[in-house]
Amino acid sequence: MARHSLVVPEGSARDGNKLWGLTALGLEAASEVLARPLGEMGGTARGAARPGAPHAMAVNETIIAITHTIPEATRPVRRSRPETAASLPPAQDTVAAEQGTGDSGVAGIGTVASWSTEVVHHLPAVGCNRSAVQADAVLLAPEAGVPVLLVEVDNCTETLDVLAAKFDRYRRFFHLKTKGHQGLEVPVWSTLYPPTGREGHPPVAVVFNPGIRTGEQALKNRMNRVLEGTRDIWSGRYERMGSILSGPADGYTNYTDAVPLLVTTLPRLKEHGPLEAVWWRCGHRRWETLTDALDNPDDIDAWHHRDEERRRERDQELEQERLQREADLQRELRTSTPCRPATAAGSLRALRPARHRRVRPSVRRRPARGRPPLPRLPHGPRPPATRSAQGAVRQEIRHVSGCRTG
To answer: Which of these, 130, 183, 192, 399, is most buried using a 10 Å CB contact count?
Structure first.
């Protein structure tokens, strides 16, 4: 491969083995062998192995610890087997490959083809300086519930300021926008990776490799300092929700601008595998599995679930109060009128407060507009003046009728 300029020597590892690095031509040849696009193969990390390749070897060990699969042959190899080979039991590596586990029997996530190393994410240039953030490895395993996971390997040699600055560049890259197919602005990372299915930016996992120089307590102190130094990056924003049933103290955490940050150690991954509770999500308070660590238990969906539970409990309380009122009414009817049957409408009318009862107005004749009311005459015989007046009216009517007849 070196004769064809596919690899270049990169020094020797600490155990004495010689290290080789892929050239650009070798990377292109590897993409053809693996049947993957060249853009998904990552970078070459030129010069990473010169001081003994501690970081490159740690990245390789991390990928092997998360995948836990036996390397597959890139090209079919014809092998001659004896006739009695069919009766022999299958080899242990074949059984492990069929079950998706490695030689240690620990299940993993994805395959070698699910990984890309030394992936560069470009940032806007400031003057003549071109900035970028380079991920050590990127895992794409949607079949395992991990659409995208950016992995950073720390050998506990970099300063905390350098490590925290890298996470800040990740957030700057996640803020970049571009035009989508419909002319709308979409995040740049969404054009490179599949959607996460969760609120927030793509998750970033930090794998600490303590080695033999960093003790257990020193490793814990380093992890805690990283957690505190990146709090504004992984923590969400608390939103108070006002509702009649939720109360003034309820709300949710908005993770729209948060970068989910997970930490673990390389010894934990090697011993237990990636599917066990070996991940610590910054903001959570216990070791969790990868899917549980990626979830947001206090987001807007959790608040909607709590609010729905409160509404259901409130409806049940109102139904119980209604049934209790009806039972009290029936009991009062049986005790108040035992001998006289009463209808429900009459009973409800009797129990209704006085201010809600319908009062029937009394009928009173009002005088015509513009005329004074006539005095009410006393009972008995009419006075003579009234009789003479009526007789005069009758005599006048007869006189008028006689004139018309004649």
So the answer is: 192
